[in-house]
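User: I'm writing a short report section on ligand binding and want a predicted complex to refer to. Could you take this sequence and NAP and write out the structure as tokens? A short remark afterwards would be nice.
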Amino acid sequence: MSIAGKHTVITGGGSGVGAEIARVFAAEGAKVTILGRSYAPLKDVADETGALPLTADVTHRGSLDAALDQAREAQGAVAIAVANAGAAPSAPFRKVTPEAFRASLAVNLEGVFHLWQACHEEMAEAGWGRLVAVASTAGLKGYPYVAPYCAAKHGVVGLTRALAQELGRSGLTVNAICPGFIDTPLLARSIEAITAMTGKTDAEARAQLVAGNPQKRFVGTGEVAGAALWLCSDAAASVSGHALSLSGGEV
Ligand code: NAP
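Assistant: Sure. The structure tokens for the complex follow:
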């Protein structure tokens, strides 16, 4: 069974990694729905790919449920749920407010919980489904100045492992993709924060981030989309509960 015709919901599908996953899955014939808070970037990706663009905030279950209902009405039951929306503001630990900590968990961890919980039953009814999260190497190791993000992404890996155990008999697989640094708008914001905090130039900040990757380069969005495609294929039917590092050997 390929992903052709499968209704695939991708959160954060209006930019960066999510937009590339939308392109790759649409090219493979999936019926793609992309979600995010801002409509304009979603519309651009939709115009390019034929995906259905819907606004939703993954931190609010009601907002997400309303969008999913619209998506099901237009494209049928969800077969593949890619929890990709995320944000990685950086700050020294002593400056992290409780509100900022909770906000990071809300988008990076609870957002995954909301999407997967909202979609897994219809997958089980169909006897086939794929739950995929775009986590991070920050789910597998620590980095300085992004403690809430690391905590949330480690949580995503834990959620993945738990659900693989619990849902294995339902025909679902549950996996997390853990890329290293990728050149997207999220990375651009991190680099801005580093330059503001340290006085380093943009090039120096980029070099600092690349230094941790044994291949001395950023990961490509296409590499993440390719991994997602493979995890959703029948070739990966036995791969579940996995945290797939895409980091050139960093972790
Ligand atoms: P990005 O271009 O900033 O994309 C993030 C997307 O998430 C945006 O489309 C954003 O759209 C959406 N989003 C954020 N908060 C949301 C919310 N509350 N509800 C719904 N959508 C929301 O960054 P990216 O690099 O592609 O990030 C995608 C994923 O890859 C994230 O989970 C990130 O943690 C992960 N990742 C990134 C890197 C990296 O170096 N870039 C490395 C490893 C993992 P709106 O703002 O319109 O809502």
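A remark for your report: The chain has one domain: 7-182+220-245. The mean pLDDT is 97.
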